[in-house]
Specification:
The chain folds into two domains: 9-134, no CATH class; 152-254, OB fold (Dihydrolipoamide Acetyltransferase, E2P) (Beta Barrel), CATH 2.40.50.1020. It is built from eight helices and eight strands. It is an alpha+beta fold.
């Protein structure tokens, strides 16, 4: 069926069949009430039994046919038309048999040919109703990661540790090197004496993420993120590449990069 929600295998299949069966029963009750094709001449109970057998039994033939064609014909309306044609011969035989057993109608070739032209439009209508019931408008989901520029005060303490040349430069990343930190900016790199843990504390409110045990990156410097073979890497402004560890990958996923 097209567009139905996914779920546990057995439960989802049972739910689909239950909904299809409810649709067919409702149509059978409607046809019993309308009594087309002179079926109003039959007793009330017999009339409803006749239409329930024809609509539910015939409809299930259509549902099974639709299931066989779903992978070959993706377009739901085209498939409904094709299914209505293919189901007509066996459904006509079902209707002919039901008429013969319940109403004493003739069981011959002439009656079968007559039924083909009556059954096909009803089969088409049933398949269209079913398609309408299962059709859902396509859901369009757009995601956008918006990185706001950091406020100057949240990086002020950290920036005071840089030389005058780089204090006002764009911060790209901070890389730990033993007891030193390599600070990457758009004005070049600079080594400062500071523990990585202390740098993370000073940058806690800045727009960026720790992506590795020895890397912190500014959010607005990230250009691309790639993950393969259990390891990730980030392409940053200026051509810099930073590693991404499994431990910190969920942070980037939450930010929309995966």
């Amino acid at each position: 069926m097209d567009g139905e929600a996914s779920g546990p295998g057995g439960a989802a299949i049972a739910r689909r069949w239950a909904i299809d069966l409810a649709i067919l029963v409702a149509i059978g009750l409607l046809m019993g009430f309308l009594s087309p094709f002179a079926s109003e001449r039959a007793p009330v109970v017999g009339r409803y039994v006749y239409w329930m057998i024809c609509m539910v039994g015939g409809g299930l033939i259509g549902v099974l046919t639709d299931g066989l064609l779903r992978r070959r014909i993706a377009a739901i309306w085209r498939r409904a038309a094709v299914v209505s044609v293919l189901m007509t011969p066996p459904v006509s035989l079902l209707v002919l048999t039901t008429e013969h057993l319940l109403m004493g109608g003739p069981f011959d070739w002439t009656g079968y040919q007559r039924l083909l032209w009556q059954v096909w439009p009803i089969s088409l209508a049933v398949m269209v109703v079913r398609a309408l019931a299962w059709r859902r408008s396509p859901v369009r989901v757009e995601t956008l990661t918006v990185i706001a520029p950091p406020l100057p005060e949240v990086e002020a303490n950290f920036r005071r540790r840089l030389s005058a040349k780089r204090r006002g430069a764009r911060l790209i990343a901070v890389e730990a090197h033993d007891h030193y930190l390599k600070v990457h900016t758009d004005a070049g790199e600079e080594l400062i004496t500071l523990r990585f843990a202390d740098a993370l504390d000073e940058l806690a409110r800045a727009h960026g993420w720790r992506v590795h045990r020895s890397w912190w990156v500014a959010a607005d410097a990230v250009e691309a993120v790639r993950w393969r073979r259990g390891a990730g890497e980030m392409r940053l402004a200026g051509g810099l590449v930073a590693p991404v560890s499994r431990t910190h990958a969920p942070t980037l996923k939450a930010a929309g990069w995966f």
